[in-house]
Design a protein that fits this description.
It is a single chain. The chain is mainly α. The chain has one domain: Amino acid/polyamine transporter I (Up-down Bundle), CATH 1.20.1740. It has 16 helices and no strands. Helix 5 packs across helix 16 and helix 9 packs across helix 15. The chain is globular. The termini are close together.
Length: 475
């Protein structure tokens, strides 16, 4: 049975934050995470260290001097969605995250689509970042011991340890993720600042004038840039475990979108500037921050950033397993998946069964691709693109659901209707960018794979519907 949404008094002003109401614990530890630890969940799922080291070079290969603009457009789109998500988070605290937000308002079948899309998004993101982990583990291995480690060993290690930590204690997970990202981002910011200083405090006119930039390249770059932001909403999966969730979670969602947006745009601008002076191909560099640290005159930070990137990849895998397991657990509570996945560990108070299943499905695609000799960078790109389809679907459905939810709460305003329309349009733009022009193989097959997955999820939903009746919508 679905848990009723937390709600506020109908007479409460729309701009006021509602008080926390007791919520079902689902067997999880309640209210143990501080606001900073809650923010860490979103930040770590975004993996801000991963984008400067892996994603920004891919965007540059498409958008060139328009890389910063692609990130600006993507950041604005994500911020619009973040505003929608934060509105829902003022009224609801649940491990189901965006799945609960959409299913509480839209038809049950769309709630099922949201659930399966969000689950895939987190799992595919985890598998994607396993590819980044392989890439940076081998960069460091070549530098230290002169040879690479077996990819399957790296897949098993990164996913296995992440699953073990997520199974053991969410508080340990949150603290670990927080400090990993703080250190890594500090190093990157230092390099970016020194690059700007050494190049003189003036605008790079080639970038500002978009020299040599094709509009289609920027449009395709926006889609890749969007992957740098996905996961900003994952703090919402900690609804049962965050302290004062109706306050801390909306703030974490907005803060993560703003902070990471500024960080990404600054990194995109400074990295393009730095590589132009380095005389190397930015889009083909295996460790771009290593090169840029030398350009900035602080080469000692190069290896440290590589280590930070490796650990950040691990933190992102951990964050994805943590988030996906809670979504899967609530799907089980709602009858969407097998009831055994509702179980929580009697001592750890974590969704142990769901964590194990999520860990397995994070491991399998990365392991299969690695076994076929696919490079870590390609695993990152392929699985990341698949994850983006899931996130776009969920973000769009949540944006569509917002005005209906606010109307029910008697808080609907013209501004909120405009926000919903703008966020939905931004996600539609991103989806079109993934489909046209038709990308090269294997990216051209990913939409069909994603569609087949959703159809399978809907068939499962219909089978359960016949067997147990319609899923109750949250009130």
């Amino acid at each position: 049975m679905a848990e009723p949404l937390l709600s506020v008094d109908g007479n409460l002003a729309a701009e006021s934050l509602p008080p926390v109401v007791a919520t079902q614990s689902y067997g999880l530890k309640q209210h143990i995470l501080s606001p900073l630890e809650t923010l860490a969940q979103s930040i770590s799922t975004i993996a801000p260290t991963a984008s400067p080291t892996m994603t920004i070079p891919l965007v540059f290969a498409l958008a060139g001097n328009g890389t910063w603009l692609a990130y600006l457009f993507a950041g604005v789109g994500v911020f619009l969605v973040a505003l929608c998500v934060s509105r829902f988070a003022r009224y609801s605290a649940s491990p189901g995250s965006l799945y609960v937000y959409a299913s509480s308002t839209l038809r049950p079948v769309l709630g099922s689509v949201t659930a399966w899309a969000l689950l895939l998004a987190y799992i595919a993101t985890g598998a994607s970042v396993v590819g980044g982990f392989i890439n940076y583990a081998n960069v460091l291995a070549l530098a230290i011991v002169g040879r690479q480690f077996p990819s399957l060993l790296l897949v098993a290690t990164s996913v296995g340890v992440s699953t073990l930590i997520a199974y053991r204690d969410v508080k340990i997970s949150a603290r670990l993720m927080l400090w990993i990202e703080v250190v890594s981002v500090t190093f990157i910011v230092t390099v970016a600042a020194m690059l700007l200083w050494r190049n003189g405090l003036h605008l790079d006119l080639d970038q500002m004038r978009l020299k040599g930039v094709e509009p289609s390249g920027v449009r395709l770059g926006v889609v890749l840039a969007l992957f740098s932001f996905v996961g900003f909403e994952s703090a919402t999966t900690l609804g049962a475990e965050a302290r004062d969730p109706l306050r801390t979670i909306p703030r974490a969602v907005i803060q993560s979108a703003i902070l990471v947006g500024i960080f990404m745009i600054a990194c995109a601008y400074s990295e393009v500037l730095g590589f132009r002076n380095a005389g190397q191909d930015f889009g083909q560099s295996a460790a771009p921050l290593h090169v840029l640290a030398e350009q900035a005159g602080i080469p000692i930070l190069g290896p440290l950033i590589d280590v930070g990137a490796l650990i950040s990849m691990f933190a992102c895998i951990l964050a994805c397993v943590t988030a996906a397991a809670r979504v899967l657990m609530l799907m089980s509570h709602n009858g969407v998946t097998h009831k055994r996945l509702t179980r929580t560990h009697h001592r750890n108070a974590t969704p142990g069964a769901a964590v194990i299943v999520v860990g397995l499905f994070t491991f399998l695609p990365a392991a299969l691709l690695a076994a076929r000799g696919v490079r870590g960078a390609d695993i990152y790109g392929w699985m990341g693109s698949l994850a983006t389809y899931g996130f776009i679907t969920v973000y769009a459905l949540v944006a569509i659901a917002l005005p209906f939810h606010l109307k029910r709460e008697r808080h609907l305003t013209p501004a909120m209707i405009g926000l919903s329309a703008a966020a939905t349009a931004a996600m539609a733009f991103a989806l079109i960018g993934t489909l046209y022009p038709v990308p090269p193989a294997p990216y051209n097959w990913l939409p069909y794979l994603y569609l087949a997955y959703l159809i399978a999820g809907l068939i499962w939903y219909l089978v359960n519907l016949k067997r147990s009746g319609p899923l109750n919508r949250t009130a």
